[in-house]
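quick one, four chains, predict together pls
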Amino acid sequence: MSDALDASLRLARAQTALVKRFDASLGGLHGVSLADFTTLLRLGQAPGSRMRRVDLAEALGLTASGVTRGLAPLERIGLVTRETDARDGRVAYAALTDTGRARLTDMLATAEQIAAEIFAAPPWSKEDIGQMSALLTRLGGTGLPGHTSTP
Amino acid sequence: MSDALDASLRLARAQTALVKRFDASLGGLHGVSLADFTTLLRLGQAPGSRMRRVDLAEALGLTASGVTRGLAPLERIGLVTRETDARDGRVAYAALTDTGRARLTDMLATAEQIAAEIFAAPPWSKEDIGQMSALLTRLGGTGLPGHTSTP
DNA sequence: CTGATATGCTTGAGCAGTCAAGGAGGTGGC
DNA sequence: GCCACCTCCTTGACTGCTCAAGCATATCAG
């Protein structure tokens, strides 16, 4: 097997382990999945904490229907609201509520801690993490808004 | 956001892109998913091309029920058979059929090509790939049987 | 104004995995 | 020999996504 195929299979494997870990902690402490958290985080980064649902789908690498289904429970528990566009009757916005913004802050702290734990044992150097992130960026398309490493 | 959290989210994002790409090509050419291919590949690496289903689950990072459901269609299309253990009536083996072994060879060629394409543009160096694989290994647990890079 | 086409979103059906429960078989204490 | 317990595997119910279809709204050509 080539190195390239080996790396691909490892990527798939590593992701399931990582997602499980985030889901466990985020779920236990805040009742949300990693996918939920990523959605809220992305919304929080948008101007006015709101995005058109189709743009949110694009940003998250999901389909529009995935966003509809994923947002439903977040609306139900009051972290996100639906807003309409006065100009264009087709579009609906997803927006963070005040509660959502507050809860997101807590979740972010938890997520940071999990990430720190994951990359702590066996000890990762700052360079390792930066390198890996750079390598993954080449694979995953644009995905996240530009993140400049904190040197 | 810390580098560690950033890298984690990129990992998740990169995986879905990568899986989509493998699924598209493997599905189109051979009618199997990346998960199917990984299962067959792992079976092919085992002595006698057979494994206890519980060990297969462990090797693939799945639960036993995940293996039951995943193998069902592969058995139905004749790539895998179920074998029993004369000594222990509880255990069932999953084994590659001759057809399965032959088809796996073709799939492997396809998968190698996809992996090569993925890591070709923008050009990845052999060192980049090795580095990334090493970094991912730290995250994903053991996962694959030891793979020593081809230098 | 009307009809054709494009866009935004939701919905039904399906797939791949999870967990919890349960059945069938094996093992050890007494 | 028997009963308690353990292991292997499957099944039912659920989640989180996909695709295909459909509805509502917008836009553009004539």
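The helical segments of chain A are 3-30, 34-45, 53-60, 64-76, 98-118, 126-140.
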